[in-house]
Amino acid sequence: MALIYTIPQNHVVLIKRFGKHSRVQRDGLRFKLPFIESIKKVYEWEGVANKNGYFIELSEQQTDTPPRQCQTQDNVTIDANASIYWRITDPVKALYDIDILPKSIADIALNALRSNIGKIKLDQVLSERQNLNQRIAAQLVETASKWGVTFTRVEIQEINYSSETAEAMMQEMTAERRKRALIAEADGEASAKVTRANAEANATLIRAQAQAEAMKIIADAESTYISRLKENTSSEIAGQIILSQKYIDGMKIISNNAGDKVFLPNSFQGMFEISTNNK
User: Fold this and answer.
1) Within this chain, do residues 41 and 107 fall inside the same structural domain, yes or no?
2) 8 A C-beta contact, residue 118 and residue 135
């Protein structure tokens, strides 16, 4: 590399002097001393977060991890991978405190992914993916500070499982739907019974209130009638008249059906005679 060079924007170069780190050069026109200074190269990064093997990028990077086999809390084996978004904040740490930074980032992210998946069940892995992403990112914070990087976010890309697991999940979903349908049917039937019971209770209450009101009206009418009789006759004669009317009303009810035989009481005629004689 030439003694005078231009560093692209948002990139840095690490200068070594006699094999030891000397300084960090930022973007712009820069130079190095011949023979005693050299540039730290990162060809083993394979083009990740660098250009030409020595211009270190400070912009956000994305690393896609390979699939890794994980075991859930309910002993289901799945294959999962993730995308890690990160950027270098301290290039000296990133180059000197960790060997091959991009590879180490992928490895630590996969270890965190496997560790967190092992703490929850399969249905939680599938339904709470966002929470799982946040837990993995939080677990990487401590390591990030040691390596001079910042993890901005982690996103689980794919979760694959065997056909046997998929079939078992389908059966479980079918059973759950059937359970919900039975519960809904039972709730509906119970609600209908309550509605019918309430309706019957209300109807009974209305009939009772109507019957009580009718009886009160009849009682008031009879009381008025008896008072008028007593004003025009004696109390004894008024009682006999009322009793005769009760007999007549009762016979009307008894003889209402033409097919029934009606037996008149022996005292029936006598009652009318008493009433007539009193008059």
Assistant:
1) no
2) no
Q: How many residues does the chain have?
A: 279
SS3 content of the chain, % helix, strand, coil (to 5): 55, 20, 25
List the CATH number of the domain containing 111: 3.30.479.30
| This model's pTM is above 0.85 | no
Q: Three-state DSSP class for 123?
A: helix
By residue range, what is the domain housing residue 40? Answer: 1-58
**Are both 52 and 109 inside the same structural domain?**
no
The CATH number covering residue 17 comes to: 2.30.30
For the stretch 136-192, pLDDT in tens is 888 888 888 899 999 988 998 888 877 776 566 566 666 666 777 788 778 878 887
Output the six-digit token pair for 274: 């008493």
105 plus 74 within the same structural domain: yes
Decide which of 139, 161, 183 is a domain's last residue.
161
Contact status, residue 83 vs residue 63, Cβ threshold 8 Å: yes
Distance set, CA 223 to CA 158, 189, 215 (Å): 91, 50, 12
**3-class SS of residue 93:** helix
Residue 6 lies in a domain: yes
In the block, tokens 């992928």 appear at 106
DSSP code for 276:
H
Residue 272 identity: F
Contact 75, 87 (CB under 8 A): no
Backbone angles phi, psi at 21, to 5 degrees: -60, 135
Whether the CB-CB separation of 102 and 49 falls below 8 Å is answered with yes
Number of domains in the chain: 3
